[in-house]
Amino acid sequence: MKSNSHPASWGIVVAAVGIVLGDIGTSPLYAFKESLRSANGATESHILGILSMILWLLILVVSVKYVYFVTRADNHGEGGTLSLLALLDRDANRPKIKVGALVLLALFGTALLYGDGIITPAISVLSAVEGMTVTYSSLEHWVVPITVVILIAVFSIQSKGTAKIGKIFGPVMVLWFAVIGILGLISVIKTPSVLAALNPYWALSYIQDHGWATMMTLGSVVLAVTGAEALYADMGHFGRIAINRAWHFFALPGLAFNYLGQGAVALRNPLSHENPFFALVPPGAGNIALVVLATAATIIASQAMISGVYSITQQAIQLGFFPRMQIMHTSETAFGQIYVPTINWMVGFSCILVVLYFQTSENLAAAYGIAVMGTMTVTSIVFSQVVLKCWKRPAWQAYGLMTLMLAIDLPLFFSNLHKIEEGGAFPLIVASLLLVVMHTWKVGRAAIAQELSRQGIEIGDFVKDVEESKPHRVRGTAVFMTGRNHGVPSTLLHHFKHNQVLHHNVILLTFATDSVPRVPNKDRTELKELGQGFWRATVHYGFMEEPRIIGAMDLINEASEGKLSFNPQRASYVFNREVIIGSGRSDLWRWQKALLGFLTRNAQQARDYFSVPTNQIVELATPIKL
């Protein structure tokens, strides 16, 4: 398996620190604090045991599982659960992703990331703003309003894109990791005995002493590694090598020293667990400066997670799991800089509701771990299938590796289940609703395609009929958009039945989404002459690309080698508007038919999705009984 081979200059490494590692970089704000509280005590053994678990989770989960193993499973540079799914589909030589147990599991893991995308900005910004109360306790009632204002600002500027401000992301986060690392180191120098936490003995001893009660603590300790899945999902921005260096040279040292420093503070003053992170600096101007830097870091972490949600949405649309939505590229030079208005405001509105409901980062932490660990568990399972089927490794290696990963993931996942009543149900509800939408859209579109195929006729028969009947032909080119690269589109049948005329050139155009992020131009176009002025064209795009009609027409012109010569700006583009009628005999449940109809009516129209000039569009309604 060829892994991502982006160049790894130190400029790219620094940028990766901000874009990819922002989420995990802000975890010291709340992870150790919540772990101490859940431990129900702050004795020396408690502190060393918790620190040892945090440090070794950073090593085992992030360094070993993700950076060393999982990031090697890239789909032409892209990461994430959907990329793993597409990788399996491509290597198994199946023409399309079919809905089965593994697919549903992968979709659920993807859906959980949306819950993570809602909670991450909320808890990160909320934790940073709460730092003001360490110095100015009278401002406590202003924490939520300030957080809401910051979140509104963050989501309001998304349409501007991150390309312009992206250059400062890396340096700010490098400064963040340097500051929190130095603050932690100073604290460690004052209490060097905290270094004993590097010995895994303390973690094992804590588990042995507390037995099943350890699960309560693990539910908070897991907050230290919540950004690991986002690290993998955002891998396509900079590549595995840059992420590897960014993690080991910047993030890991800064995080390790800071957690140790917080532990040293707790050893010196057991009551400091109210906010051990901000207790690293004396109250006053230094604390305010740290609050400002923490707020900037959390905004960057939020931006990274929001951008990841955009990328996931684009992949889901291209792979046929979401209805079409408007996707805007915000940079002409930076690949992956996209903005999805519908998702942006749905996530933004949800973030604000979450802050208003939970009020504090302590309350919100209850909802955080389930989403992240659910996704991590799914990744371990799907990754094992990549090792087995794509890398062609023996079953004992694939399942042995999965067993080792799940030996960490499952306890962490189950340790969060007790939080369901405290708010942990939120990401599960979000994921379940999204899973229903994705599954319904996928199987619904398959049912529509099957119904259209049943109603259709073979293109050879249609061309033969045209040859014999010799209908009136008008000058120009008509492009009939169709989701199938066989048969006659229903729009062409309706058009010919009612108008009894055909254009001189008739192109049956299908946009095909391949299970790769990008398709080279040389492999993009398939063109076949059918006779009587009919042509069938299939234009291939990767799941990280956006199809554009005019560009596709230029490729078709070029592929015809002069046989087709037309002006794309003067062609007619014929689309069908599907009208779902739920009185048919399909296997879909009645509620699924209703949901499919709702999604179809509210999906972005194909004409807009493919950027078709409005004055060249012809649209015909197509009733479909399901």
Summarize the structure.
By secondary structure, this protein is of the alpha/beta class.
Secondary structure: elements and pairs:
Blueprint: H1 10-19, H2 22-25, H3 31-38, H4 44-69, H5 81-91, H6 101-130, H7 132-135, H8 143-156, H9 166-190, H10 201-210, H11 214-221, H12 228-233, H13 240-268, H14 285-318, E1 328-329, E2 338-339, H15 341-358, H16 361-390, H17 395-414, H18 425-455, H19 459-469, E3 472-481, H20 490-499, E4 501-514, E5 525-531, E6 534-542, H21 549-559, E7 572-581, H22 590-602, H23 606-609, E8 617-625
Parallel strand pairs: 3-4, 3-7, 4-6, 7-8
Antiparallel strand pairs: 1-2, 5-6
Helix pairs in contact: 1-9, 1-13, 3-11, 4-10, 4-13, 5-16, 6-8, 6-14, 6-15, 6-16, 6-18, 8-15, 9-13, 9-14, 16-17, 16-18, 18-22
Keywords:
disordered N terminus; 626 residues; Amino acid/polyamine transporter I; two-stranded antiparallel ribbon; 8 strands; six-stranded mixed beta sheet; 23 helices; alpha/beta
* CATH H-tier superfamily of the largest domain: Amino acid/polyamine transporter I
CATH architecture of the largest domain: Up-down Bundle
CATH class membership of the largest domain: Mainly Alpha
- Residues in helices, as a percent range: 55-70%
Shape: elongated
How many domains comprise the coordinates?
2
Oligomer: single chain
For the CA atoms, what is the radius of gyration? 27 Å
What's the tally of helices? 23
The strand line-up of the biggest sheet is 5-6-4-3-7-8
How much of the sequence lies in strands comes to 5-15%
Mean pLDDT metric: 83
Characterize the main sheet. Answer: 6 strands, mixed
Q: Return the structural class.
A: alpha/beta
Total strands: 8
